[in-house]
Amino acid sequence: MLLVADVHGAFGALARVAAADEPLLVLGDLLNFIDYRTLDGMIADVCGKEFVARIVELRTAGDYEGAAAVWHEFSEGRADSLRTQYDALVEQAYAATAAALEGAESYVLYGNVDRPDVLRSHLPEGSRYLDGEVVEIEGLSVGMVGGGMQTIDTPGEVSEDDMADKLSRLGEVDVLCTHVPPALRPLSSDVVGGRQKGSVAVLDYLRERRPSFHYFGDIHQPQAMTWRVGPTRCVNVGYFRATGRAYRHGT
Question: I want to staple 214 with a disulfide (CB 3.0 to 4.6 A). Which of 5, 52, 83, 234 is the partner?
């Protein structure tokens, strides 16, 4: 069983991993919204790198209100045109996702930058979209729950109450897979971005249900890649766009 998260447009690398002829779990964020390292991404394609550089500068400094103000000023009077261009890029990205996963046994959940309905509609035969569901993979019960924490009002964000509701459907599982980490500072704090994005509902589930493993992504540069919550080994499976490497279960 292989796991990846935060693909963010690295579809060539995803295709190589998907060709490995073993189950592949994709833990969200297929779209490349903004690459904070290079300023590339769909927003740069639509709005330009100069605009993205300003947004990244403000968000990295923790000025999320300032970033929102810059966006509103930039989009005033042309929001419909920008949305049309962005929607076309979303369709292209999920078509590339489908091509990368074609023929593979894959299990996919959505992340905060994803468009859940559009992602689901593009997945090829052999790929399963899962959200608040349990599937058996290699003899293990695997619970998969999509969504990111509420920060900038993207389609893939969910409230803590919604996250708790989806987790409650799972019961006990051997392996929990989410996009977001539990609300523990070493796992949920990005050493570059600074902001914490962990889920209290996920942490509560780990403490109550005690799965053997919890796999997730979302935090690209965490303080720690692994941690334990009681008997549960929590693992950030890595920033796939940067590494191009999948994580193998149990390693």
Answer: 234
